[in-house]
Amino acid sequence: GDSVTQMEGPVTLSEEAFLTINCTYTATGYPSLFWYVQYPGEGLQLLLKATKADDKGSNKGFEATYRKETTSFHLEKGSVQVSDSAVYFCALSAGNNRKLIWGLGTSLAVNP
Amino acid sequence: NAGVTQTPKFQVLKTGQSMTLQCAQDMNHNSMYWYRQDPGMGLRLIYYSASEGTTDKGEVPNGYNVSRLNKREFSLRLESAAPSQTSVYFCASSVDSRSYNEQFFGPGTRLTVL
User: Fold this and answer.
1) Nearest CB to B42: which of A46, A93, A102?
2) How confident is the model over A7-65, as pLDDT tens digits?
3) Other CB atoms closer than 10 Å to residue A110's CB: what's the count?
4) Which of A17, A39, A72, B56 is most buried as measured by Cβ atoms within 10 A of its Cβ?
5) How many CB atoms lie within 10 A of CB A79?
């Protein structure tokens, strides 16, 4: 069945460091791919998405490119800030069931 | 524009008690969802409603029931709470259930069952 695998956390970085959070997927057909972010004590909110191969989603300095050949959707940011400390979830949606399949989340802590 | 609202924010129940978690959205969305979030398990779908008048089971429906009261409201009921239902519950909505549509989440309900 469809699945999403994210790198395990926690990830701890210093401010202005480069961030990569890996996400790979298994899916039949042509999934849409998402990154959601959950700030402490809040619900999830969409960070970016891509709906077809080679699309790049971007928002708030974060980027991810839909790579069908490597079935990946890695999240990157060139210079993280303390305010980026949160849990990041990769997810896919595919097929007739139209439900989101979630990764387990990766916790990011950014120190000043 | 409140988005997705959930009540209550926190709840403590004893084993065997019942309760209903309320969810409402003001974005005129057709589809609504209930998830639970547990450490190390990520988000798991309990039930969803693709449109008003329809509901379907997700991954973990046992011990729960839902009602899509109208287009705005989607409630989750625990008939006889168990400690295994201790979790954070999130309601979400989307324009419709097509795969590329963003889901909007409420702030969550933190439930503890003793």
Assistant:
1) A102
2) 888 999 999 999 999 999 998 878 899 999 999 988 999 999 999 999 999 999 999 99
3) 19
4) A72
5) 11
CB B1 within 8 A of CB B26: yes
| Burial degree of B95 (CB within 10 A; 0-12, 13-18, 19+) | middle
Question: Distance between CA atoms of A34 and B104, rounded to whole angstroms?
Answer: 13
In sequence order, which residues have a C-beta less than 8 Å from that of residue A18 and are 6 or more positions away? A76, A77, A78, A79, A80
Q: For the segment B44-53, what is each residue's pLDDT rounded down to a tens digit? A: 999 999 889 9
* Residue B17, φ and ψ in degrees, nearest 5: -75, 160
Beta strand extents in A10-83 (DSSP E only): 11-14, 19-21, 23-26, 32-38, 44-50, 56-59, 62-65, 75-77
Asked if the Cβ–Cβ distance from A46 to B103 is below 8 Å, we say yes
Structure tokens at B55: 């509901």
The 10 Å Cβ neighbour count of residue A22 is: 16
List of chain A residues whose C-beta atoms are within 8 Å of the C-beta of residue B40: 104
Q: Looking at the complex, does the CB of residue B82 fall below 8 Å from at least one CB of chain A?
A: no
Q: Do A100 and B45 touch (CB under 8 A)?
A: yes
